[in-house]
Design a protein that fits this description.
The complex is a heterodimer of chains A (166) and B (292). Chain A is mostly helical. Chain A is built from 7 helices and 1 strand. Chain A has one domain: Arp2/3 complex 21 kDa subunit ARPC3. Classes of the chains: A mainly alpha (166), B alpha+beta (292).
């Protein structure tokens, strides 16, 4: 059942990424909701789920992008795995912890992409850091924070999971 | 606040670590084989995933159309759309006529005419954009089952759009001419000097390796040279805006304004087989594929 839910989520995620997100980009940068989803799954469900979902999301997203397949899979898989490891080190996931974690995860993932792109000169690297890496890290953190607030504060999924009434 | 995950068993953790290390090791030791394998499996997976993309794209298209036809200014929008299409068509025709005139002059002088065969093209619709922020690409609704392959050129009536870099069974990813990772063989129409057109980080294009003695100037049009890659000769790429000459450099370079507004492109043509004329005037067949 969980596999079906994850597969549907990945399909929806890829569709939204390719069609809707280009219209909500800020300064030409759109949030990486795949990374946000993988980070949340890793943090709350453990390393194995984070890793497997991360690898699948990275693969699915690379099919509809010019991004290198290996870099995309390894980046998303690593984020899921590390989020799972981090999830065992923190007692409670607060919005601050989540937002900070997302900034770090997004930055690491972007640095991996820059490394795989092999830019020719220093100027290009700084341009990428200034115009893509930094805005995307902020954007991912904001989107992740909003998702967290929406899911756990508004929908009360914890209570749902415990079988209580809203 | 939510309790963090403590439920992962020791076995699951070990398994995760094993999978992670295996994937890392696999991509380091057998990068090409694994990429090919995942790309092959990705064909049918891409076909399945293309359906939600098509669905969202069609809903989005429907909403956009309803908005522009019934909510926004209907007549102005129609007229504008018509004029844009006419302009694109005329720009394309103009470029082709210039190229034809230039070619006629040269070939008449040689008293020899070589017919240029028309390339086979596949029409496709743009259904999406790149999933990341690192590349400027568009996603087409046609893929390998429609005969589209990597390295094929993509154009509109106005000029060059880009090059196919990846395909699944039902979709194709096109790297735009404005992406810094793209390179197309170009030719300055007036001076006949050749160079390489690359995208730039701000989203424009640059013609590199122009000979120092070339008298290229702003306003000159750049077309495809047809020597390598998936494009026949004479397709408009862009217009030169500024020339850059560096002290001691072996070549000069020029900034280009691409002919096609790649942010607004909706329908494109994929060049399936660009033919080049042989010495006897007959077609030589498809050009060899450019190595990645």
């Amino acid at each position: 059942m969980k596999i079906v839910v994850y597969a549907c989520a990945v399909a929806a995620l890829v569709a939204v990424h390719t069609t809707v997100l280009p219209y909500v980009s800020v300064w030409g940068v759109k949030p990486d909701i795949g990374l946000v989803a993988v980070c949340l799954i890793g943090l709350l469900s453990g390393e194995l789920e984070g890793l497997v979902v991360g690898l699948f999301v990275g693969w699915a997203m690379s099919l509809f992008s010019a991004t290198d397949l290996a870099a995309s899979m390894v980046a998303k898989g690593s984020v899921g795995f590390l989020a799972g490891l981090a999830g065992r080190q923190v007692a409670q996931v607060t919005p601050l912890v989540l937002v900070s974690g997302l900034v770090v995860a997004s930055t690491l993932s972007s640095l991996m992409t820059i490394w795989s792109l092999k830019p020719n000169d220093q100027q290009d690297i700084w341009w990428m850091i200034r115009t893509i890496l930094m805005p995307q890290a902020c954007f991912d953190a904001v989107v992740g924070g909003l998702c967290y607030w929406l899911i756990w504060s508004r929908l009360n999924l914890d209570r749902l999971a415990e079988g209580r009434e809203f | 606040m939510r309790m963090a995950n403590f439920r992962s068993s020791y076995g699951a953790r070990r398994l995760a670590l094993g999978v992670f290390l295996s994937v890392l090791l696999g991509f380091f030791l057998l990068p090409h084989q694994l990429q090919t394998l995942f790309q092959e499996i990705g064909g049918p997976v891409g076909w399945v995933l293309s359906w939600p993309i098509r669905l969202v794209a069609s809903v989005q298209g429907g909403i956009g159309e309803t908005w522009s036809h019934y909510v926004a200014l209907q007549d102005v929008d129609d007229e504008n759309r018509q004029l844009r299409k006419e302009l694109e068509l005329l720009q394309g025709q103009n470029s082709q006529l210039r190229e034809a005139a230039s070619a006629t002059e040269r070939l008449t002088a040689l008293l020899e005419f070589k017919a240029q065969a028309l390339p086979t093209m596949i029409a496709a619709q743009v259904i999406g954009r790149d999933t990341g922020n690192w590349y400027r690409t568009i996603l087409l609704n046609k893929g390998s089952t429609d005969g589209i392959q990597a390295d094929m050129g993509v154009v509109t009536s106005a000029g060059v759009v880009g090059r196919v870099v990846k395909t699944t069974m039902a979709t194709a990813v096109v790297l735009l001419v404005s992406d810094p990772n793209n390179a197309i063989a170009g030719l300055i129409q007036r001076t006949r000097d050749e160079g390489i057109v690359e995208g730039t980080t701000p989203g424009l294009a640059r013609l590199k390796y122009i000979p120092l003695l070339s008298n290229v100037r702003a306003g000159d049009r750049v077309v495809t040279s047809g020597l390598v890659g998936g494009f026949p000769r004479g397709l408009a790429i862009g217009t030169i805006t500024t020339i850059g000459k560096e002290e001691g450099a072996l070549f000069q370079s020029a900034e280009l304004r691409p002919e096609v507004d790649v942010n607004r492109v909706e329908e494109v043509l994929v060049i399936q087989s660009p033919y080049i004329p042989g010495e006897d005037g007959k077609s030589d067949g498809p050009l060899p594929k450019a190595k990645p």
